[in-house]
């Protein structure tokens, strides 16, 4: 972990002006108040900052941005601070201010007829889900950090999560954005339109830009009919190919019913059972490979239980499924999902791990898991590959856990060797080195080889056009 420097104090004129614009709740300068915002969730980075800006409105943010731009002070947007790649952490110079949108957390409008809601960037994802439920609708974006992650953060990183196979990433769930540019100008693009073919779709530049082009302050989000019927099955399967075969069986039977299809390795489930209180193995015997399948329909009598039983019976007869458990109640379904959701926390409690958020075409997922697991085990003897994730959309977290009893620091020092090992195989399979976590600070050095040439040059030109002074989240995304 890098050493930190004492933060450089803000110019007196800037500090005074910010205090006047933001009020007593909108500017934090006490080191104790700032400290929680200076480290990322994984503990990879520890930064320094003289202040946290906490605007209470879009107008306050715009005014604060204009002031920071005038004084050439760099700004680091931060939502729930759950980035896996250091995307929301200031650097060690102590000259970057953190901009938290936590106070921009209002639901501005919700329309169950138009199936849209307009919410501010600091609204926690779980609160958006609950708001949709309150009007008998569904906001489907779901991920492990949904109790902390914010709407601005999930849009800025184009988060995926568990239901991408059916509903798409965050980008597909967004209709319009309100944005503050690096010079303080405000773009009001909060249009709840399915069709709006009027020039460049600027909103899509900001989704996935990780705060390097400006601030997302509010969004119009799509809602969907809520599920009237839901079935969740946890299955022990023969191998990776059998897992994919089971996905195809469910997809071919009723593609619209598959809300999630998650692959879990035997080691990953073992760690969840070991470290997370209340997590138990729901099938009779341990296996090396599991899947969790979630079926849902807005039709109250969709027949999902007979569908699930029929598909699983076929897969059992074919030798693809070894054993399966279907949740009999909402509590049991939640317990089955918890095995999957607690994977990151279980790995954290076991020791140091290196994350590899990668994607390949769905048909290549079994080969990727096999090849990467073998290569990683050979690279660091005694280490434990823990692949898991969204098989239905080709995104697997090809993680590696440190050897038991090993030195965590020595293991983490080889992070880039580990990532390179995985990425070499992923590249051969036509995949991506970042599926849903983004680039942040961790993976900027990979951009040149993966997205170099005209593609990366176009990104740099866009950045230079919108943020010529380089004040928006510097050191992230672009090398």
Descriptive overview:
It is a single chain. The protein has 17 helices and 19 strands. It is α+β, with helices and mostly antiparallel strands and 479 residues long. The chain folds into 4 domains: 12-100, Uridine Diphospho-n-acetylenolpyruvylglucosamine Reductase, domain 2; 107-225, Uridine Diphospho-n-acetylenolpyruvylglucosamine Reductase, domain 3, CATH 3.30.465.10; 229-343, Alpha-Beta Plaits, CATH 3.30.70; 352-434, Alpha-Beta Plaits, CATH 3.30.70.2740. The strands form 4 sheets. Strands 12, 13, 14, 15, 16, 17, 18 and 19 form an 8-stranded antiparallel sheet that branches. A 5-stranded antiparallel sheet has the order 5-6-10-8-9. Helix 8 packs antiparallel against helix 10. The longest helix is centred in the middle third of the chain and has 15 residues, at 240-254. The two termini are 20 Å apart. The model has no long low-confidence stretch (mean pLDDT 95). This is FAD-binding oxidoreductase.
What is the helix fraction of residues, given as a range? 25-40%
Domain count, please report it. 4
Enumerate how many helices there are, as a single number.
Answer: 17
Report the average pLDDT across residues.
95
What is the second-level CATH architecture of the largest domain? 2-Layer Sandwich
Rg, rounded, reads 23 Å
Strand-pairing-aware structural class: alpha+beta
Overall geometry comes to globular
What's the CATH topology name of the largest domain? Uridine Diphospho-n-acetylenolpyruvylglucosamine Reductase, domain 3
Report the top-level CATH class of the largest domain. Answer: Alpha Beta
Strand count, sense and barrel status of the largest sheet are: 8 strands, antiparallel
Keywords: FAD, Flavoprotein
Protein name: FAD-binding oxidoreductase
Pfam family, one: FAD_binding_4
Domain FAD-binding PCMH-type: 45-226
């Amino acid at each position: 972990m890098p050493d930190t420097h004492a933060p450089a104090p803000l110019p007196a004129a800037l500090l005074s002006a910010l205090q006047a614009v933001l009020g007593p709740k909108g500017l934090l300068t006490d080191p104790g108040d700032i400290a929680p915002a200076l480290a990322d969730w994984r503990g990879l980075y520890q930064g320094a900052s003289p202040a946290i800006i906490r605007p209470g409105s879009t107008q306050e943010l715009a005014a604060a941005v204009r002031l920071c731009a005038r004084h050439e002070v760099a700004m680091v947007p931060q939502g729930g601070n759950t980035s896996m790649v250091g995307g929301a952490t200031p650097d060690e110079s102590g000259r970057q201010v953190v901009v938290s949108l936590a106070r921009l957390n209002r639901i501005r409008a919700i329309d169950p007829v138009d199936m849209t809601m307009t919410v501010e960037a600091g609204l926690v994802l779980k609160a958006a889900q609950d708001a949709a439920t309150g009007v008998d609708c569904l906001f489907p974006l779901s991920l492990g950090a949904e109790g902390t992650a914010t709407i601005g953060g999930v849009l800025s990183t184009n988060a995926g999560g568990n239901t991408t196979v059916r509903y798409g990433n965050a980008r597909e769930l967004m209709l319009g954005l309100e944005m503050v540019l690096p010079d303080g100008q405000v773009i009001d693009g909060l249009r709840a339109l399915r069709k709006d073919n009027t020039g460049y779709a600027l909103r899509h530049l900001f989704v996935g830009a990780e705060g390097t082009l400006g601030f997302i302050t509010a969004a119009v989000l799509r809602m969907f009919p809520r599920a009237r019927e839901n079935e969740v099955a946890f299955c022990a399967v023969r191998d990776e190919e059998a897992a994919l075969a089971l996905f195809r069986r469910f997809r071919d039977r009723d593609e619209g019913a598959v809300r999630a299809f998650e692959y879990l390795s035997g080691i990953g489930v073992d760690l969840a059972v070991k470290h997370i209180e209340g997590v138990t193995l729901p099938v009779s015997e341990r296996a090396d490979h599991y899947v969790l399948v979630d079926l849902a329909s807005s039709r109250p009598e969709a027949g999902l239980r007979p569908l699930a039983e029929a598909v699983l019976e076929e897969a059992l007869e074919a030798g693809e499924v070894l054993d399966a458990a279907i949740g009999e109640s909402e509590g049991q379904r939640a317990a089955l999902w918890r095995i999957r959701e607690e994977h990151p926390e279980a790995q954290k409690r076991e020791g140091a791990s290196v994350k590899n958020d990668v994607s390949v075409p769905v048909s290549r997922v079994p080969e990727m898991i096999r090849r990467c697991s073998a290569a990683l085990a050979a690279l660091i003897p005694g280490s434990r590959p823990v692949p898991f994730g969204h098989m239905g959309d080709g995104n697997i977290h090809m993680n590696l856990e440190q050897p038991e009893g090993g030195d965590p620091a020595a293991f983490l020092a080889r992070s880039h060797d580990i990532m390179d090992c995985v990425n070499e195989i992923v590249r051969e399979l036509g995949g991506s080195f970042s599926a849903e976590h983004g680039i942040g600070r961790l993976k900027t050095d990979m951009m040149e080889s993966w997205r170099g040439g005209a593609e990366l040059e176009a990104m740099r030109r866009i950045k230079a056009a919108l943020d010529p002074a380089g004040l928006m989240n510097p050191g992230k995304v672009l090398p």
